[in-house]
Amino acid sequence: MSARIARSSPAEGTSPTPPVVLAIAATDSGGGAGLAADLATLSALGVHGTLVVTAITAQDTTGVHLVHPVPASVVAAQLEAVLGDLPPLVVKTGMLGTADTVRLVADRCTGIPLVVDPVLRATTGAELADHEVLHAYRHHLLPVATVITPNASEARALLGLDPGDPTPAPELAAALAALGPAVVLTGGPSTALGVGTNSAAEFAEIGTNTESTDHCTDWLATGGRPVALTHPTVQVADERPENRGATRNDHGTGCTFASAVAARLAHGADLPTAARDAAAYVTTQLQRSSTWDLGTGRGPIAHTHAHPAPAPEEIYA
Ligand SMILES: Nc1ncnc2c1ncn2[C@@H]1O[C@H](COP(=O)(O)OP(=O)(O)OP(=O)(O)O)[C@@H](O)[C@H]1O
Ligand SMILES: Cc1ncc(CO)c(N)n1
């Protein structure tokens, strides 16, 4: 017997119209990052997500195997379709793939609150942007972005610094903010270890030390002195013996974080609140997937909201 979706009376079974956030990003066939992460996060946080696909990636928990950019004319057609009919309160960008697409997004999304996650490299290490793309980010997208959410290595690339440049994280955030947008420079556990980003003085300032991995620090820069936003680390497995039992499922944290920022902004939160809420959401979802066994590499952060699934009688009648 087939189950029928319940049709309850409008007063009982309806909810208010949700805000719309447009996610402009690429697909991840493994379902951990990119548009899969964006739409799941927006849905979990009470937002209707519309989407523009910029590239298709063949990707799994072990790495990126192929990137197929969508032609700029097809990206433009998707943008025209959704910007007119379903105007977004906030736009969030992830992997854009080509310089043409970066410029197109900058042109078409000017005047809409814009959260830019400058995806230049996958968690698994694959390069997802070349010099032309970087140039387009610097000169076209950053000046019209409301907030950008790079990690430290993306921040260095956007500033034209060497990968090994020792500039501390808050200075990187401040330098990017000087180009126009507010900045949340994200820092996973490697930042807490002081790898290339935080100086000992900064760790003293935020009440931790260079050996501590208990807290992650994101740096919020809005023009003045950058502010440290700290939250508890979900320990990630690495070569250290004490971390052997920790999670290996952290694929998609950056996309999830930026989408959560966009969702909270769309609900009217201010940027510091949105950034704190987004970090709390990432931490919760990392914790939830910490014992999952998906794939052989770095598995996904949790994108399920009701898991295990509710009993059928709670959904169907
Ligand atoms: N292990 C962790 N425990 C708690 N929070 C984490 C952890 N790893 C990342 N985060 C948080 O997740 C958010 C996204 O930061 P992250 O640095 O992972 O982005 P990213 O490097 O751009 O990710 P990705 O490579 O998936 O795009 C930040 O708020 C960061 O502090
Ligand atoms: C499609 C896509 N977007 C973003 C990332 C960054 O994690 C990724 N690995 N893949």
UniProtKB/TrEMBL annotation:
Residues 291-317 are annotated as: Disordered. It catalyses: 4-amino-2-methyl-5-(phosphooxymethyl)pyrimidine + ATP = 4-amino-2-methyl-5-(diphosphooxymethyl)pyrimidine + ADP; 4-amino-5-hydroxymethyl-2-methylpyrimidine + ATP = 4-amino-2-methyl-5-(phosphooxymethyl)pyrimidine + ADP + H(+). The keyword Amino-acid biosynthesis does not apply. Pathway: Cofactor biosynthesis; thiamine diphosphate biosynthesis; 4-amino-2-methyl-5-diphosphomethylpyrimidine from 5-amino-1-(5-phospho-D-ribosyl)imidazole: step 3/3. Residues 28-301 form the Pyridoxamine kinase/Phosphomethylpyrimidine kinase domain. InterPro entries: HMP/HMP-P_kinase_dom, PM/HMP-P_kinase-1, Ribokinase-like. GO terms for cellular component: cytosol. GO terms for molecular function: hydroxymethylpyrimidine kinase activity; phosphomethylpyrimidine kinase activity. GO terms for biological process: thiamine biosynthetic process; thiamine diphosphate biosynthetic process. It comes from the Bacteria. The keyword Ribonucleoprotein does not apply. Keywords: Kinase, Thiamine biosynthesis, Transferase. Catalyzes the phosphorylation of hydroxymethylpyrimidine phosphate (HMP-P) to HMP-PP, and of HMP to HMP-P. This is Bifunctional hydroxymethylpyrimidine kinase/phosphomethylpyrimidine kinase. It comes from Nocardioides cavernaquae.
